[in-house]
Amino acid sequence: MPENHDPRHGFGIRRGANGIRRAAHRIDAATPHARDRAVDALRAFAILGVVLGHWLVTALVADGDALHTASPLQHMPWLAPISWAFQTLAVFFLVGGHVATRGYTSARARGTTYRQWLTNRLARLFKPVAAVLALWTVTATALLLTGAPYGTVRTLVRLALSPMWFLLVFGALTAATPLLLRLHPLWPLAVVLHVDLVRFGLGGPDWLGWVNLAAGWLVPYTLGAAWTRGELERRRAGWLLLGGGATATAVLVVWAGYPASMVGVPGAPVSNLNPPTLAAVAFGLAQCGLALLLRDRLRGGMRRPLIWAAVALVNLSAMTVFLWHQTALMATTATGLALGRLPGLHTVPDGLDWVGARLAWLPVFVLVLAVCRSAFRSFEQGPRRVGGRPSRVVRVHRRTDPAAAEEARRA
């Protein structure tokens, strides 16, 4: 049947699909050729992994008028492999170390001062935080004034602000980048090893583990610096990290008694994540090795305009997505209470029926997060101009001087 005789809804669907394809091709064409798309793909993967992981293992159980946190890993520990797939922070620190050290080296070559470079990077990192803090200050105050249980408000605020620890650590490592340009990853790894030996093997104080909050994430961050130095280009490095990290993790979990879950579990005596343990760092090494091995495949896959457009959009709002995903979860949960205790949302996560129900809620979380992104993305990307604001990638690419192309490649 000729296209102009198709039903209106079919024509509309095709027209919408064609519009998406055209937009994707414009983004693809506007991306500088020198840009390493694998870096953007790994960053998007790491952010989305954390978001999905939190949505799958964080439950807010309704107990009368109160809400308290729970986890399916608490009731079904055999689901621990879920945490292996979605605890992707090591990959984010790997990419962050690579981008920061490469950007700082290039900035110094252009005559940019350390203060200028750091101010620019931290502004992009922490500017979206202001909106989260402002909203939750108002929300917490309003809830308390209207008689909400203090425990519930405390639970909600802790969940909403939990991503902040990540930004504080990442910001501190970013500020220390000039000192980390040549630091070998074995040095912070040795610190983690000795901290755990004293803490678990010799009965040392629990507070000593918080030394690993810096040392543990320094390991993938300095691996990113080694990537910048060109020391991880050979596939042998990726295989060594993957095999060594996976083997060490298995030994630590099976024979040394470390938890199998790579995220914290409510009520568990030890968390692999808060603070990071040797098992979490070893697991992160395996993840970094896999990420390095996948670089070439990712570069090839990112040549597909639709895939690259999706990755580019995630990167443009990476901090907004990261900071607001817990709020999206809680907003859905609180709104749903008006309809009663809903499966997968307010019920105890103690069976596969809860898992199935939670999977069904994921599209709702995505929709609410999209609303948050639309409302607060200007804090990350800057105010929109009248008539719209092109993406940073497109805007940079439209400048044709070599310095602009180099700037885009470093972003």
Q: How does this model look, in words?
A:
70% of the residues lie in helices and 2% in strands. The chain is built from 20 helices and 2 strands. It has helices at 8-30, 37-57, 72-75, 81-86, 89-109, 114-145, 150-161, 164-175, 177-180, 186-201, 212-228, 235-254, 278-293, 295-301, 305-316, 318-336, 352-376, 378-381, 392-397, 402-410; strands at 59-63, 66-70. A hairpin with a 2-residue loop joins strand 1 (59-63) and strand 2. The chain is globular, with a radius of gyration of 23 Å. Mean pLDDT is 87; it is low at 384-411.
Tell me briefly what this model is.
The chain has 411 residues and is mostly helical.
What is the helix tally?
20
Radius of gyration: 23 Å
What is the overall silhouette? globular
Average pLDDT score: 87
What share of residues is helical? 55-70%
Strand arrangement, major sheet: 1-2
Structure classification: mainly alpha
Name the poorly predicted regions. 384-411
Strand content: under 5%
Q: How many angstroms does the end-to-end distance come to?
A: 48 Å
Name the quaternary structure.
Answer: single chain
